[in-house]
Amino acid sequence: MNIQVNPLCVKLCESLPVLSSVSAEVKQICTYSVKVNIIELAPSEIGSFLSSHQSELIKVQFPLLSNVYTYQALTELSTSPLPLQSQNKFVITYTQDGQHQITVPYVNLTRQQQLQLVMDNNNIPLSYEQIGHIAHYNLRTPVQLQFKNYIGLCTISKTISTVINKTESISNTFRTFPFELLAGAPNYIATTTQNGYKFVIDFENVYWNSRLEEEHKQLLNRIIESNLNKNEFVFDATGGVGPFAVPLGANKIHVLCNDLNEKSVEFMKINVNNNKVEQYVTCCNQDSFVLLKEILTTPFNNKQVKAVILNLPELSVDFLKAYRNTGSVFEPKFYIETFTRQKELFKEDIIARIVAARKGFGIIHIDLGIECENEECGCDQFKTEQLKTNISTLREWEGHFKCMDVRVVRDVGTFKWMVCAEVQFDEKDAFWHQRRDLK
Ligand SMILES: C[S@@+](CC[C@H](N)C(=O)[O-])C[C@H]1O[C@@H](n2cnc3c(N)ncnc32)[C@H](O)[C@@H]1O
């Protein structure tokens, strides 16, 4: 049902304050009214009438009333005295021009219909992320921002009591983002589930993304299938509140789960306890650049590192710099999630960046013919032409990996993809230990 934008609702809703429940004013003004003719028909006439008057019929799709039931209901209602209230779902009155006016109260409109009262379909936000009782929007268009608190109010439901809008993109070290409250209570401690485990999250202060459930599951399965023994452990270098560590612990896999954010570690510990995996998961609050150097050379609790999860896309590859001058003898498998801007040559891009980080940048730049001395390893560092012209060098480098598998996980923007690389280095191969500087 396409509802007409209603100027009275527009006026009220563009200046709406942050509300926790629908105010009497919204209930009174934000209703939907439509004028119809109600025709009394004998049951035997309904079928032929519907088929011969298709174009004039309004398909009334009010919640809880199917189309057929609505036709039937309206036919029955036309014979009843007016005004008439049908189980509070809608009210029918006569109008002066002899028609009937059906008015549907705010609470009986769907979220889509409530929003149609003030904006066109193109501006209605299609989805939001739900984290426990919190709904999280990324509102962008001027119309969405004009009606942001009304959008929030329409989202409040039995399961959602806080609605927020991201105001700036993620840019800080802890991968949190600024947001504003649109509706409901400012309560940002949420409880949610992922892959069958319960997580408590302080959404204001820690990183969490509910949409990554499937992606996390794929990575978890790969580690679980690699059959670690009891003398081996997984290092989750940027573990957040524990979406990898908790399921791994529940599969009796030992994990050292680290995060630089103190708040993340506070909630990581809560989640480890709640899911009863304390025996398997050790929580830690350090810089993984430092910690990685240590665990690559020294056993932790008499266990050797067997797998390393690097799940901070902007920096994941750079963490491999920790290898320099360590003389590591362990050969863990690295699960690296990172971004690429190379659609076809994504594998080559990742190889170049991993080799660059692992060995030091100078040699890579010389071999790929790039005049660049800076030590930053960004997604844009290697250009398509450079990768294409040096494809044989890249193939040769690929040969030095003990194992190398790169898969695209998803699109993250125009010309930007998330990839997951699984790599292992052969520590006996001199290639990984040679480093030639630029000059
Ligand atoms: C993209 S989030 C991923 C968190 C978690 N793996 C998840 O999927 O929910 C990256 C995490 O890395 C942490 N972080 C950033 N820099 C770090 C560092 N140098 N050492 C350890 N953790 C770091 C952030 O606090 C954040 O929790």
From TrEMBL:
GO terms for biological process: mitochondrial tRNA methylation; tRNA N1-guanine methylation. GO terms for molecular function: tRNA (guanine(37)-N1)-methyltransferase activity. InterPro entries: MeTrfase_TRM5/TYW2, SAM-dependent_MTases_sf, TRM5-TYW2-like_MTfase, TRM5/TYW2-like_N. SUPFAM superfamilies: S-adenosyl-L-methionine-dependent methyltransferases. It comes from the Eukaryota. Residues 128-427 form the SAM-dependent methyltransferase TRM5/TYW2-type domain. This is tRNA (Guanine(37)-N1)-methyltransferase. Coiled coil: none annotated.
